[in-house]
Fold these 4 entries.
Entry 1:
Amino acid sequence: MAAPTIARERVQDPTQLRGIDVDVHPRITDWGAVAPFVPAGLRHRFTRRGGPPMARNGFKVVGDPFGGVPRPADDKVHPAGDPTWVKAEYLDKRGVDVAILTSDLTSLGVQPNADVAGAIATGVNDWLLETWVRPFDCFKGSILVAPQDPAQAVAEIDRLANDPGMVQVLMGSAAETPLGRRQYHPIYEACARHNLPLALHLGGEGAGMSPPSTAVGHPSTYFEWYGAIPQNYMAHIVSMVTEGVFEKYPTLKVVLCEGGIFWLPHIMWRFDKNWKAQRSETPWVKEPPSAYILRHFYSTTYPLEAPPDPTYLHQTLDMIEAERTLLFSSNYPYWLFGDPFAMVADIPEETKHRVMVENAVALYGDRLLR
């Protein structure tokens, strides 16, 4: 079922914006509401209790995953299940003018059944447009795709790329192989052709067809799993640069959701040093790898690491050119690691508004404001 495309008037003056949140997780509380948007032959998989089968790992949050997030009076109601609630109790009260919706379905790319994964992506995308994006100017959507079937993913991007409610393409960072591999290149070509950033989101590593979430095997606890998970972004960055993704698609931009930032200088320095000695193996990598990283990758603020001295934060912000590349995110409603606004409190004032608003406007452009 194809979602209709509608035109919108510009509703925001970018000079007056207070905050743009690039990572808000809408919750599907009734998969029966998604079922009408999927192919009839697979619809029965969505009406079963708990929704369609999903690849999962064994790591569960210890404690309250929502932290200090606002809660409905009925504690059985999910705090991200109702867009009206999220707008009134989070966006309006915390000064967020626009929220980009991502997904809880971070293991979609390692779901063994590619047809079911593609149907989930299609159904969720149309449900998101009808339930969250079209009724509310403050919400913008992401085109969720399942990368294990690149042709199907490209068709989904082409189907929705011109919808004014969609501002990026979204994949989970959990994948069968490093994301620079050439089977994924058609997805990147579609993103570049439609001038859509690609967002990756951590969370499904170690599930389904994914390799273990660390290079030495499966962790034992959620604490270990989450602490080590930026390794996956390191691997994907190295893969995408060395496989020539950004030489083939020089306009492609990639947003790394929920990965932190303090590991980025290390990977840039090590990568540059090795490139000087081994560049003959990948002659298409024409610049130091750090140049590609700084030009093509963006990071988000949740959960920003908490160094013992704010000076370390300021130094790291300089090294990753945060005045261009850092985007505010809340990971709403999952505030296990603290309040997202407190995390940006030590960012210098001359950089903060760029992080809160201007960098997102520069990245997403007019799509974000209409």
Entry 2:
Amino acid sequence: MIKEELAVSNDQQNSEAREKVSAFIIAKNEDDQIADCIASLKFCDEVLVIDSFSDDKTVEIAKQSGAQVYVHKWEGYKEQKAYALSLLKYDWTVNLDADERVSNELRENILHVLRTEYENKKNPQAGTEEIIGYFINRVVYYLGRWWRKGGWYPEYRLRFFRKSKVVWGGINPHEKPIPQGKTERIEGEILHYTYDDMNDQLRRLVNYSLISAKEEFSRDKKVTVVKLLLSPFIRAFKFYVTKKGYREGMAGLIVAILEGYYTFIKYAQVWECELNSKQQGKHGEGS
């Protein structure tokens, strides 16, 4: 796998006059990814790993890599990240998943923001609206390429922010921090080393679809024949045409179809939840 060089002079960057910054990663069984993820966050003043009882060497490697490790029972993506926020020492926060890295350009721009924030504290500018977070473009590496032509690109996510100015919201597994103030975009990328191969992608899509289905069912979402038939097509069309996945050639077509497959099995599982609920209700009436 091709990886961008992430060498950095940590002593110099962590001793300069700037705002302090925390980073956190939620993880389970990520012993093949966690060290590189932590290495890309060495410029941060603390790095926390919230582990969900891994049965591989994730915890051991994370500690060896200099991170503070907390073991916490898995309650959901949103709940796990909200818990992580409560543990952080500093207000400015960077959030990565274990299969992500901070690029060199992004690291330097984050440090520039932190230096500027430090200076602004000493010399506040009257009437200037505070920026409480920055959206970062995440670029995916999959099927032997960086996806910078279409499909998953561009994909901006709020990953650098003041923890005191966000609440963790969204719907599992697609949770997100909800900003309570002004945000901007920042140059540089989060490097996302996503699925290992198609088998890995299919396995994860099934897992994510079940989580999403349970969330949809809990919110009393209903599935119709029309929705089950059309939603997968719309999802695939959006990825391949609207988001220009066709620019990635055969890889773009394959992923578009898999995006539609994800949508189909999600709504199929919502329907199954409805069916199980009705059957349980009938059994209850007959008891």
Entry 3:
Amino acid sequence: MLDLLHGDRFVDAAPAQVYATLLDEGQYLCSVRTMYRLLAANDEVRERRQQRRHPTYSKPELLATGPNQVWSWDITKLKGPVKGTWLCLYVILDIYSRAVVGWTVAYRESAALAERLIRQTVRKQGITRDRLTLHADRGAAMKAKAVIELLADLGVTRSHSRPQQSNDNPFSEAQFKTLKYHHTFPDRFGSIQDAQAFCRAFFGWYNTEHRHSGLALMTPHQVHYGDTAAICAARQAVLNEGHRRHPERFVRKPPEAPAPPAAVWLNPPAEPKAS
């Protein structure tokens, strides 16, 4: 059978073609499956064309139990003064506190600008070596050699989203939505100076006044700088007084002031299925 398959007549034919041809000539030597088995035993079954092999990317699973452990950063486009023109807003976000720890506005995406922003933000936050993980998607600036070398020099672990998986960077995406849905966000910016002035005011409000729903309605800076225990205690005292004065309003149990999450996951591990 192998001699027949190797012969000039059938050397370029698939086993199914050989099988059908022989049947039409009144011959049955073996099944198609047997032909494949014989060829596989001799390492002769493979894709004839060279095809691109896609690497397997693991899902990033990052845990933060305090500020300055995991940062997420991304770049979003802002409409410029004329249709078809854009500005680039770079934002670095702490996933535990949701605080914007660094940002800049530029005319373009640039590895040099990203490198400068990361270096300044790490210095400003006093990050020590082997303490921080920086997560981003797979944009050109995020994967640039200059940025990779900078993170290695600073002792910062880098993490990347899987290709075409926008939900691997949810904290940055959610922050951009808050930015662009804010009632003061303009349809266009008249200049880069206008965009910088807007972002300066917005991020000041966002960090110090915005009561974040994911932080038990505390501000990012309150969580980032460790004020949560005192705030929870003060809120609980107010709730206790309200319960003392009007216990009939609380049918099930006395009110409790919620606290921000003690741990924040970027892609929590899947729970094992029950057997």
Entry 4:
Amino acid sequence: MNAVHGPSSEHGSLAEQAYRLLEEQLVTLKLAPGELVAEKDLMEKAGIGRTPVREAIQKLSAEGLLQVLPRKGLMVTPLRRSDLGQIIEARRVMERLLVVKATERATPDQRQAIRILGSQIEVADTDVETFFRLDQRLNELLEAACSNRFLVDSLTAMHAQCRRLWYLHRKQLNLPRAVQLHGGLARAVADGNGAGAIRALDEIIRTLEELLNELDVLS
């Protein structure tokens, strides 16, 4: 039976589109940490109407990327060392579970997709924008393979905050090293090597900690 696409489904797709557009602006720092923004500014950036954008704002606020300030509007959440330290601490434990379950549960098609993506990552050692795009896709594939939506929901906001940290340091990033680690993670999951996946992940988290130590914002 074909699904009936009415106003509610169209509205939902617009809200998701607004979320994705604004989330990208936030994690790539086009909307700068600490910047005050108005709802109408976000509507203009997304090119989408008020109601879908308001839904996107609610989701971004729940994920910690935007803060609603009474009588002042919206503020892009600052990159705070204390917050990011706690995020990385929690992510280290939770993402170990995610990569292990992805290693155990991935279907043959998922393993093949992850293996191909890993190969693409490993040749992206001179293009940081391509690396970031492929890294986000790797997250999506691992999340699908782990088959635990509660774990995925918990990690979504953490990934977004860590992507802001990666992006902040993109000019100083040791890209060949980052490429090697993420490609190794993909290869380990595709091969069913849980111990190898954890080793690669631990090195990625260690890199994030190094970037955190370079963060100028001390709050």
